[in-house]
Design brief:
This protein has 117 residues and is mainly alpha-helical. It has 2 helices and no strands. Helix 1 runs antiparallel to helix 2.
Length: 117
């Protein structure tokens, strides 16, 4: 009787340990997916900053070449428009990447939960 309970306790402990290992693997896989996604998002922000810096320098040079207030206003308007367009496009890409990261991590979690369940 005591041996039977001991064996049952050992079996349950082993099952609990295996489940904990599976859960830890699931968390690690999801964390890896999120980490990769965050790297892509960081790269996108860096590219935006690079593009905005180059565009600003180019436009500043154009502003310096302006001869009339009308030319200056037109150049400045182009700078603002291009800056806003670039920021909006980059934000859209970041939102798409964020959604992809969340979906990927969710799929991994759901898939592992189904296998474990």
């Amino acid at each position: 009787m005591v041996l039977g309970r001991t064996m049952q306790a050992i079996f349950e402990a082993q099952q609990a340990t295996e489940k904990s290992v599976r859960n830890a693997q699931t968390v690690m896989e999801s964390a890896t997916a999120v980490s990769k996604g965050m790297n892509e998002i960081s790269r996108e922000y860096f590219q935006l900053a690079q593009h905005q810096m180059k565009n600003s320098i180019d436009r500043m040079n154009e502003l310096l070449r302006c001869r009339t207030p009308h030319e200056f206003a037109a150049c400045q308007t182009d700078l603002v428009r291009e800056t806003m367009t670039g920021a909006l496009e980059s934000s859209r890409r970041v939102a798409d990447m964020s959604l992809k990261v969340a979906e990927d991590a969710g799929r991994r979690l759901a898939g592992n939960m189904q296998r474990a369940g």
